[in-house]
Automatic annotation (TrEMBL):
Cellular component aspect of the GO annotation: plasma membrane
Name the record gives this protein: Transporter
Keyword Membrane: yes
Main location: membrane
GO biological process terms held by the UniProt record: transmembrane transport
Family per similarity comment: Belongs to the auxin efflux carrier (TC 2.A.69) family.
UniProt entry tagged with the keyword Methyltransferase: no
Pfam families registered for this protein in UniProt: Mem_trans
Transmembrane parts of this sequence: 6-29, 36-54, 66-85, 167-189, 195-213, 233-260, 280-302
InterPro entries cross-referenced by the UniProt entry: Mem_transp_PIN-like (IPR004776), Na+/solute_symporter_sf (IPR038770)
Keywords for the protein's UniProt record, in alphabetical order: Cell membrane, Membrane, Transmembrane, Transmembrane helix, Transport
Compartment list: Cell membrane
Length: 307
């Protein structure tokens, strides 16, 4: 119990404290959300990805193992969400948003800061989360966008959106610099590290601002099933795949924790774009983020016991 309390105090409380500060400041000062979002997308996220990859110790076989895990978990979750939507006889628009809410998670603004706090003394854990985040970005603009657009007969893979994602190029550069052991002069490395260090606070303040104006009403069966799928079924699925692959240690901990993060804001964004139950999607993102304060704490605790 003492360990559980320490996780809540040392990891989860700092995350939600910054979320709260972000929400409060946005209500008082009315941030320019577009500018904040662009700063994260084009500066902070790519920089923190480059730094973590450049400093990582992951081998090609380990990267292949992580990739295999992510692919199988995605296929399992996607299949479960599809079967549930069919079984509940959801209409096409609700089914699309429901499936996205289960499969897509907030691996960037929420997941990476949490991983940085959990694995402060072990950068490999944060590097695993970066691989998860890259995979999530790919399925967001393929599976996620196709799901949402299919309700209007436009279910095509958006390769253009993937190629416009700056983190893809940060990932490639990170691996190139790491693979060829290219030295970076101190006068360049220092500002790069400073930007990377600022990511955690900026990401959480921005996420807090994004959920500053909650609109909570009309909770449905699909809403609760979506929460259950994202916060409970997803970690259990990850646990099964980890056992299947025989993964252990820090890698197993990082993958298990990464599976428990709340719903992605992109699922709400796609619902808004294609008018697919946008209120349901926005509420689900907010509530899953709040409830994850409990579920992610439990998963972090379980990861330390199991691995």
């Amino acid at each position: 119990m003492a360990v559980l309390f320490q996780i809540l105090l040392q990891i989860i409380f700092p995350v939600f404290f910054l979320l709260g500060v972000g929400a409060l400041l946005h209500r008082l000062l009315q941030f320019d959300m577009k500018t904040l979002s662009r700063l994260l997308t084009y500066l902070f996220l790519p920089t923190v990805i480059f730094v973590n990859i450049y400093q990582n110790d992951m081998t090609p076989s380990l990267l292949l193992e992580i990739g295999g895990f992510l692919l199988i978990q995605f296929l399992l979750l996607g299949s479960l969400a599809h079967v549930t939507a069919k079984g509940m006889k959801m209409d096409k628009k609700l089914a699309a948003t429901f499936k996205n809410s289960v499969v897509l998670n907030n691996s960037g603004n929420f997941g990476l800061p949490v991983s940085q706090l959990v694995f402060q003394a072990n950068p490999v854990g944060a590097s695993v989360q970066i691989m998860v985040m890259m995979f999530q970005n790919i399925i967001t603009y393929t599976y996620g966008l196709m799901n949402a657009a299919s309700t209007e007969g436009k279910g095509t893979m958006n390769l253009k959106e993937i190629l416009k994602t700056p983190i893809l190029y940060a990932l490639v550069l990170g691996f190139l610099f790491y693979g060829f052991q290219i030295p970076i002069p101190g006068f360049i490395w220092t500002p790069i590290e400073n930007i990377a260090d600022a990511f955690l606070a900026v990401a959480l303040l921005t996420l807090g601002a994004q959920v500053a104006y909650p609109k909570l009403e009309n909770f449905s069966a699909a809403f609760f099933l979506g929460l259950t799928g994202r916060l409970i079924v997803a970690p259990l699925t990850a646990l099964a795949v980890i056992s299947l692959f025989g993964i252990d240690g820090t890698i197993a901990q990082a993958l298990f924790i990464a599976s428990a993060f709340p719903m992605s804001r992109n699922s709400a964004q796609f619902a808004l774009m294609y008018d697919n139950y946008q209120e349901y999607a926005a509420q689900a993102v907010l509530i899953s983020t709040l409830i994850s304060s409990v579920t992610v704490t439990i998963v972090i605790y379980a990861s330390r016991l199991l691995f």
